C-alpha cells in the first residue's frame, strides 16, 4: 500500500516562502501522477497543483499561478511544492495525493486520486 508523508509546513509571514515535501517511503512513484490539495477551515478541499508521471505536464489553480511551483524527483520518491509570495488566504492544511496512471497528463480533481497523505498545516499570518 502506497503511503505518502508530507512535511515542511509551518507559520510564515505574508510574502514569505515555504517548501512542502511529500515522500513515499519504500515505494516508487514512477507510475503515479501526483497532486497537491489544500483545505481551509470550513471550506472544501481544493486542488492546488498536479504533475504528471514524468514531470512534463503541470497544472495550477488560478489562485496560485506564478507563486507556486510543483516538482518531483522520482529517484527520491518525492514531490515538492515551492510556495512563494504567500498570502493569508493560502492558510490551510496541505495534502499530497497520488494516482497510478498510464496517462501522460495529470488530473486536478480530488476524485481522481486514490492515495493521500495525512496533511501538513500552513499558516500565513503576521
In words, what does this structure look like?
With 126 residues, the protein is mostly beta strands. It contains no helices and 11 strands. Strands 2, 4, 5, 6, 9, 10 and 11 form a 7-stranded mixed beta sheet that branches. Strands 1-3-8-7 form a 4-stranded antiparallel beta sheet, with no helix packed on it. The chain starts with a strand and ends with a strand.
Provide a compact summary of the structure:
With 126 residues, the protein is an all-beta fold. The protein has strands spanning 5-7, 10-12, 18-23, 32-39, 46-51, 58-60, 68-73, 78-83, 92-100, 115-116, 120-124.
**Percent helix among the residues?**
under 10%
Rounded to an integer in angstroms, the radius of gyration calculated over CA atoms is: 13 Å
Number of strands: 11
Inertia-based shape: globular
- What is the overall pLDDT average? 96
End-to-end separation in angstroms reads 40 Å
What is the count of helical runs?
0
The SSE string, one letter per element, is EEEEEEEEEEE
Annotation keywords:
126 residues, mainly beta, seven-stranded mixed beta sheet, four-stranded antiparallel beta sheet, 0% helix, 45% strand
Topology, element by element:
Blueprint: E1 5-7, E2 10-12, E3 18-23, E4 32-39, E5 46-51, E6 58-60, E7 68-73, E8 78-83, E9 92-100, E10 115-116, E11 120-124
Parallel strand pairs: 2-11
Antiparallel strand pairs: 1-3, 3-8, 4-5, 4-9, 5-6, 7-8, 9-10, 9-11
Amino acid at each position: 500500500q502506497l503511503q505518502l508523508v508530507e512535511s515542511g509546513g509551518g507559520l510564515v509571514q505574508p510574502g514569505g516562502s515555504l517548501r512542502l515535501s511529500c515522500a513515499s517511503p519504500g515505494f516508487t512513484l514512477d507510475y503515479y501522477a501526483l497532486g497537491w490539495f489544500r483545505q481551509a477551515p470550513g471550506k472544501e478541499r481544493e486542488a492546488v497543483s498536479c504533475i504528471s508521471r514524468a514531470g512534463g505536464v503541470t497544472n495550477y489553480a488560478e489562485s496560485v499561478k506564478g507563486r507556486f511551483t510543483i516538482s518531483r524527483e522520482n529517484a527520491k520518491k518525492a514531490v515538492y511544492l515551492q510556495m512563494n509570495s504567500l498570502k493569508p488566504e493560502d492558510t490551510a492544511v496541505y495534502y499530497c495525493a497520488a494516482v497510478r496512471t498510464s496517462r501522460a497528463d495529470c488530473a486536478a480533481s480530488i476524485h481522481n486520486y486514490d492515495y493521500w497523505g495525512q496533511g501538513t498545516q500552513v499558516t500565513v499570518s503576521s
